[in-house]
Amino acid sequence: PYIVVFLNKADLVDDAELLELVEMEVRDLLSTYDFPGDDTPIIIGSARMALEGKDDNEMGTTAVKKLVETLDAYIPEPVRAVDQPFLMPIEDVFSISGRGTVVTGRIERGIVRVQDPLEIVGLRDT
User: Fold this and answer.
1) Could you please report the per-residue DSSP string of 25-83?
2) Contact criterion met (CB below 8 Å) for 37 and 27
3) Domains plus CATH for the chain?
4) CA–CA distances in Å: residue 66 to residues 2, 16, 70, 77
């Protein structure tokens, strides 16, 4: 299993030792749940500072950029049979006013593009 941790709201903590303690606790917790706690990337930052365009102590935009780079480098691309027909089991269905019906799921195989016609298997007129 792969996981990347972003410790948010670090701008609210004045004590660097406290941040280190929290990081150690997170690593222990990850190890408890069979993740590689010692090898898991942990990025410390502040989403609020990033949204405001601040970067004091590299906790704002720099931390979020580092998070994205770490995700790209650490999490492998899923292997999927793109040469087979598109298949996405539906996990949930939402009715959103102004948009219509929205389905969510995980693509098992194939490729879909905007405006591609799709067939919903198992859904028939009654």
Assistant:
1) HHHHHHHHTTS-TTTS-EEE--HHHHHTT--GGG-SHHHHHHHHHHHHHHSPPPP-BTT
2) yes
3) 5-74 (3.40.50.300), 80-126 (2.40.30.10)
4) 17, 19, 6, 18
pLDDT digits (tens, 9 = 90+) for 30-63: 999 999 999 999 999 999 999 998 877 788 899 9
Q: Which two tokens stand for residue 31?
A: 């190890």
Nearest alpha carbon to residue 48 among 9, 15, 5: 9
Tokens of 17: 């030792």
DSSP 8-class letter at 84:
S
Q: Which of 4, 8, 14, 5 is nearest to 48 (CA)?
A: 8
Asked if residue 39 lies in contact with residue 54, where contact means CB atoms within 8 angstroms, the answer is no
**pTM, 2 dp:** 0.67
Query: Exposure pattern of 41-64 as b/e (b: 16+ CB <10 Å)?
Result: bbbbbbbebbeeeebeeebbbbbb
Nearest to 122 by CA among 94, 88, 81: 88
